[in-house]
Amino acid sequence: MKKRNFLPLFVTQLLNAFNDNLYKNAMVLFVVYQVYSSAEAEAQFSAIASGLFILPFFILSALAGQLADMRDKAKIIRWVKGAEIVIMACGATGLYLAWRATMIESVAIPLMLVALFAMGIHSTFFGPIKYAILPQHLERDEVLAGTGLVEAGTYIAILAGTILAGWIPIEVAGVVVVVMAVVGFITSQQVPPAPPTEQGQKIDYHVFRSSIALIRNTMKDREVFYAIMAISFFWTIGAVLFIQFPPLAKNVLMASKEVASLFLVTFSIGVAIGSISINALLKGRVSARYGPISVIAMGVFVVMFYFVCKLWAQHVPTELMDVPEFIIQPLAPLVLGTLLLIAISGGMFVVPLYAFLTTKVDAGQAARTVAANNIVNSGAMVVGSLLAAGLSAAGIPLLEQLLLSGAMCLISAWLGAVLYKAEKEAALAAES
């Protein structure tokens, strides 16, 4: 944390995650709690917002990965952080119009969604660098710890952004996101140079052709292939859960937007704890050893959360509860506790898989490997968003949708087990 080859990057990505989540959650919570009045419309808007943010990852990740491997990563960071100032100014205008109740559905919401889509593009180009720069700036035995810190820092930033989104007025959120974009641009100036390790490579600007080629080339490595598949399925589950949280809080638990924010905060704390814990368990070694058991535990905790919510629904109040009212409810510790355990086990599952992507390939291919992962991840998350929207449109209760997320954890566990088997086989082959 004291090293210049890590600290500026860490702070820059921290501010990036903070701003993403402050803006996205302020927008979603405002629309869910102030604009719409039906669970179906709220869940569908939440799914649309998530899908718009994820879509650029699917389309542009191949180009982002090529740029990150073939150009100076530090320069790209500065470019995208400069663009963030303009994007957040656009989003802040939408938030301001929403606050003034001016042309909410005709101008404010479209403007906010455009800014959200642009932030998805911004994150598409920043994402591969965040992980791929670590093997270039850190020693090999520091990469897992560095990845864990980045992941934990990301979720702490998500925590801070989510808290503010639930508690500060929407007009204040508009000012804060612009200020944080400016601060992030300033810190990005301190990231040390990270020039390409291979010179003279050409960039393919045909996004679909380059995406197919990138995935095909990346998937040749069995360990990388299974790691990407396991991460992608994990984030399909994550997309469904995150889409469900705000409308679930409002319509099932009768909780205010501050309590919905508390749920997301609890989830973020849990992932941060899981990220650090798995590094301690593995003692710095990149391995999927604890992957299957971690995600099975996650599925069990999702089912527990379902039953706790079922019990809660039997004694639901008629008015939305604020945080003090929610906390004193007899089942509140179980609701928050199961959410925390879901997130801890999820963090323990996914963090080593990201370390796989940057340590199992040559340094010159690291960003493109992360980009290939982002393409497959984003496709899976778009499917998760469409699935959540479809289930809501079909009239399936939000609470029952939780059971689907729990069942999907079994497939993630199988993928984790297959990855660990491939890891052991590769280790034996290397020894012989």
Automatic annotation (TrEMBL):
GO molecular function: transmembrane transporter activity
Membrane topology: Multi-pass membrane protein
Gene3D superfamilies in alphabetical order: MFS general substrate transporter like domains
InterPro entries to which the protein is assigned, alphabetical: MFS (IPR011701), MFS_trans_sf (IPR036259)
Descriptive protein name: MFS transporter
Location within or outside the cell: Cell membrane
Keyword Lyase: no
